[in-house]
Amino acid sequence: MQNPHKYSAIDQSPLWPELSASKPEKLREVLNAQRIHERILPAGGGLSYSWAAMDLADRTVELLQAAADELRLIDQYRQVLSGQVMNRGEKRMVLHHALRGSPAGRVVVDGVDYSAFYASELARLSAFADKIRNGELRTSGGKTFTDVVQIGIGGSDLGPRALYLAVEQQARSAGLLKLQAHFISNVDPDDANAVLAGIDAERTLFILVSKSGTTQETLANEALVRSYLQQKTGLDAAKQLVAVTSQTSPLANNPSYLDSFYIDDYIGGRYSATSAVGGLVLSVALGPETFQAILDGAAEADELALNTDILKNAALLDALLGVVQRNIFMRPSTAVLPYTQALSRFPAHLQQLDMESNGKQIRRDDQPCAIASGPVVFGEPGTNGQHSFFQLLHQGTDIIPLQFIGFRENQTENDPPFEGSTARRKLNANLTAQIVAFALGKDDADPNKQFAGGRPSTLLIGDRLDGRALGALLAHYENKVMFQGFVWNLNSFDQEGVQLGKKLTQKVLAETGPGDEVLEAYGWLTGAL
Amino acid sequence: MQNPHKYSAIDQSPLWPELSASKPEKLREVLNAQRIHERILPAGGGLSYSWAAMDLADRTVELLQAAADELRLIDQYRQVLSGQVMNRGEKRMVLHHALRGSPAGRVVVDGVDYSAFYASELARLSAFADKIRNGELRTSGGKTFTDVVQIGIGGSDLGPRALYLAVEQQARSAGLLKLQAHFISNVDPDDANAVLAGIDAERTLFILVSKSGTTQETLANEALVRSYLQQKTGLDAAKQLVAVTSQTSPLANNPSYLDSFYIDDYIGGRYSATSAVGGLVLSVALGPETFQAILDGAAEADELALNTDILKNAALLDALLGVVQRNIFMRPSTAVLPYTQALSRFPAHLQQLDMESNGKQIRRDDQPCAIASGPVVFGEPGTNGQHSFFQLLHQGTDIIPLQFIGFRENQTENDPPFEGSTARRKLNANLTAQIVAFALGKDDADPNKQFAGGRPSTLLIGDRLDGRALGALLAHYENKVMFQGFVWNLNSFDQEGVQLGKKLTQKVLAETGPGDEVLEAYGWLTGAL
Question: Is A393 on the interface with B (CB under 8 A)?
Answer without folding.
Answer: yes
